[in-house]
Amino acid sequence: MPVGQRRALLAHAAATGTVVLEDDYDSEFRHRGSPVPALAALDTDGVVVHLGGFSKTLDPRLRCAYVVVPSGAVGAAVLAARTARGAVVAEPVQVALAHLLRTGAFRRHLGRVRRDYTHRRERIAVRLATSGVPGLEARALTGGLHAVLTWPGPATGAAVLARAAADGVLVADLADYETVRGRSGNGVVLGYGAVTLPELDRALDVVLAAVRATRADPG
Q1: Quick check: helix, strand or coil at residue 214?
Q2: Nearest 5 degrees, angle CA 114-CA 117-CA 118?
Q3: Which of 41, 136, 145, 153 sits a CA distance of 20 to 30 A from 183?
């Protein structure tokens, strides 16, 4: 959402007494351009509750998240509700995460993994550009830890998904993310955050072979 629309949303929320819940998902992994300011950073009326976690940046097994609350009534209500909920994450885990943040170790860690994920993104783009499959494109590589592979023709994402799964590679059908059926075209979504480079290369081999085979025999 462009900054102008973000400001308009915040103005509407302030005028109508609406609380905005901002899910800060994958913002740490922006591979191209400058990140757009968070809603919470633009909020001057105390209407944004900013949510985030460490599943993508560290490890999902930590099961630890955070909330940044605004000053005023909204923040007080959120803190009261959170206090009433009680502790849900072990204190040693919270202390360790706080230490990483306080010492700058977390920021240095992000720098390292950003470089790693940028390399994986470039690897995917090169493999698809040299695949020899007409019209095959890699999208959604500007941020996050996934790539969207699309292609023209009759082969569906569901058919490619089935062929890839038979070879042990799991992807998602792009159609499952549609709000309007048929608008996105044929494609699959491939995550690359939790695999090694050899595993990524093999997954790309399998998916590309599945696309070629399905295009040749869509039935």
Answers
A1: helix
A2: 80
A3: 145
